[in-house]
């Protein structure tokens, strides 16, 4: 028996990247999966590949009517909702604070924060009737630490983490768990999607690896990019009964970035500092 046997899961942003891998994993573990996303052709292809356990509905999570239709679709097909994974998202091109594009900022909030809130608003009644359920909101280490990406994306993800806590204390009293996931750098197409061609970005995700191979050794103890499966496995844990006592938690999957800089970086800087005390000429070496 699979870890999600008999459960019904909705996964937004399921047409590519982490969403697709999570749908594959959930289905393999026995769940019936509703895949939601804006790219219909891709979504239908994912659902067809997963077989009778999966279905696709086109939905823009920033639009309330679309979210209502998504929830209605799941209930009409399966009669219940055991897990909602609010995974839909994308990059934000907001710019610096003095040049911030407010339309881009509003779009980041609409997809990441409004989208998660709408999903919870309309999935919660079904879960309340059941007296059970698991909601997973996709956050990011950018919601905990600045300096890695744009202010719009970082601000939205910080809001998702706190929104998760707010809803967790409300629904937890009724047997419904609400948690967030905060990945670090994961090899998906998101790094190329600021250009607008999302399909091409997904196809060329591997191109990000070389850049991160240069960046990560200075900031991440585990010296590799995360894989989609690293996050999907964490989502599987939160969706399953194995996490039945986990509520209001932000599960970080980041190779140790938030824990601190790699020890080797710190040790090298300490040697440089010690050398500068004895010989000031080495301070800028």
Low-confidence stretches: none
Secondary-structure element sequence?
EHEHEHEHEHEHHHEH
User: CATH class, anyone?
Assistant: Alpha Beta
Distance between the termini: 60 Å
Proportion of residues in β-strands: 5-15%
Please outline the major beta sheet. 7 strands, parallel
Helix content: 40-55%
Structural write-up:
It is a single chain. The chain has 9 helices and 7 strands; from the N terminus they run βαβαβαβαβαβαααβα. It is an alpha/beta fold and 285 residues long. It has one domain: Rossmann fold. Strands 3-2-1-4-5-6-7 form a 7-stranded parallel sheet, with helices on both faces. Helix 5 (151-171) links the parallel strand 5 and strand 6.
Outline:
The chain is α/β, with parallel strands linked by helices.
Task: Describe this protein with a few key phrases.
Rossmann fold; single chain; 285 residues; elongated; 13% strand
Spell out the blueprint of helices and strands.
Elements: E1 8-12, H1 17-28, E2 32-37, H2 40-50, E3 54-58, H3 64-78, E4 83-86, H4 102-130, E5 133-138, H5 151-171, E6 176-183, H6 198-203, H7 208-215, H8 228-239, E7 250-253, H9 263-278
Parallel strand pairs: 1-2, 1-4, 2-3, 4-5, 5-6, 6-7
Helix pairs in contact: 1-8, 3-4, 4-5
């Amino acid at each position: 028996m699979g870890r999600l046997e008999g459960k019904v899961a909705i996964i937004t942003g399921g047409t590519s990247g982490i969403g697709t891998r999570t749908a594959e994993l959930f289905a393999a573990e026995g769940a019936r999966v509703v895949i939601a996303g804006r790219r219909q052709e891709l979504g239908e292809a994912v659902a067809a590949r997963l077989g009778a356990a999966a279905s696709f509905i086109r939905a823009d999570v920033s639009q309330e009517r679309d979210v209502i239709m998504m929830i209605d679709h799941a209930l009409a097909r399966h009669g219940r909702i055991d897990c909602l994974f609010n995974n839909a998202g994308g990059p934000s091109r907001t710019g610096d604070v003095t040049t911030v594009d407010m339309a881009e900022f509003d779009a980041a909030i609409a997809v990441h924060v409004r989208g998660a809130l709408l999903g919870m608003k309309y999935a919660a009644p079904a879960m309340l009737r059941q007296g059970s359920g698991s909601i997973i909101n996709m956050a990011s280490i950018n919601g905990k630490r600045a300096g890695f990406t744009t202010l719009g994306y970082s601000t939205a993800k910080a809001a998702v983490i706190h929104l998760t806590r707010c809803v967790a204390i409300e629904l937890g009293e009724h047997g419904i768990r609400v948690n967030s996931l905060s990945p670090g750098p994961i090899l998906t197409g998101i790094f190329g999607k600021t250009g607008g061609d999302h399909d091409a970005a997904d196809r060329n995700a591997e191109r990000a690896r070389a850049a991160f191979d240069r960046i990560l050794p200075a900031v991440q103890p585990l010296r590799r990019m995360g894989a989609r499966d690293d996050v999907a496995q964490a989502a599987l844990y939160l969706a399953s009964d194995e996490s039945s006592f986990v509520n209001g938690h932000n599960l970080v999957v980041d190779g140790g970035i938030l824990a601190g800089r790699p020890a080797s970086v710190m040790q090298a800087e300490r040697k440089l500092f010690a050398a500068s005390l004895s010989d000031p000429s080495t301070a800028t070496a």
